[in-house]
Amino acid sequence: MIFLSVLSALILEHYLSWNRRDRLSVGFDRWSQMLRDVLDSGAERHGMLAWFLAITPLFLFGVAIHALTLRFGGAGLAWLIDTLILGAIVDFKTVSDRLGEIAVDLEAENIEKAKAAIEAWEGAPLPGEFDIPGLASRAIQLALLHAHTRVLAPLLWYVLLPGASGPLLYVGALALRQRWQSPHADNSQFPRFAISAMQFLDWLPARLTALSYAVVGNFEESFFCWKTQAKLQLHDGRRIVLAAGAGALGVHFEPAPTLPYGVINGELGTGDFPGADHLENTEGLLARTLVFAVVLLGLLTLASIVGI
């Protein structure tokens, strides 16, 4: 059932538009912002309280809807509901669409249009001036992180926890970290629990994603970058994902004032700086990673059926 749900959800997500996905997250964003407005006194314990108030309804909804549909509607209805929720969460289509759009702009040397597309994807203005290798580096970084946080990690949590509770827990925690973590250093301790909780939830998924990038890409370079360049921030799985992804692609990200979403800066990758052609390579790497993950899940499912 889990394998069929994952396969069906990946097919379903292909037909969901960006706008529809955005609308699905508006209510949660408003709820989380209201909690911060009411509870933010600068203390970490209030951030912990706000985090549980935001996440608990999401998690319990996933558990309850799975249990109720399984009890009163049977396995078929439970599978259908889980697939619909998972299809609304996972989002691989954005990666291919965004990379294709940005690659066309970079090939035409339309710097401003490519920069605008990257800023719309990241949801924040780019710091400073970027040339073509810098924009290509940023687009690849966003793609590697998006495939991890919006596809591979939610699928893993779907396997680990009942129903859609795992993916809902993960994407909810991800949204809270991104919304509450200030891009500027301040003395507020309110976001600290949200950051720590996300690091805990992302520990295993980040390392499995990095391993998957290495398996389907340049394994030696990926493993080298993982071990030598992710040491700056081992507690944040996002840097591990970026280091392994850069090594798997054989590119060296051009230095920039910051990395996406507040990841600690530093050298990532080996080889030459990327260009527009490397965006297509990135799309291929991510597609192979997804196929690898689905095939592996299928083999594990088959093994459990035959009793291996």
The average pLDDT is 89
Q: Please tell me how large the radius of gyration is.
A: 19 Å
Order of helices and strands: HHHHHHHHHHHHH
Apparent shape: globular
Are there runs of 5+ residues with pLDDT below 50, and where? none
Largest sheet: none
**Number of helices, counting only DSSP H or I runs of 4 residues or more:** 13
What is the strand content? Answer: under 5%
Q: Which structural category do the helix and sheet elements fall into?
A: mainly alpha
Total beta strand runs: 0
How many domain regions? Answer: 1
Q: Oligomeric status of the shown chains? A: single chain
Our measurement of the CA-to-CA distance between the termini, rounded to an integer number of angstroms, reads 18 Å
- Can you give the helix content as a percent range? over 70%
Blueprint (SSEs and pairs):
Blueprint: H1 2-13, H2 18-39, H3 44-72, H4 74-89, H5 93-107, H6 111-122, H7 132-160, H8 165-180, H9 192-201, H10 203-216, H11 219-229, H12 237-249, H13 277-306
Helix pairs in contact: 1-4, 1-13, 2-3, 2-8, 3-4, 3-8, 5-6, 5-7, 5-13, 6-7, 7-8, 7-12, 7-13, 8-9, 10-11, 10-12, 10-13, 11-12
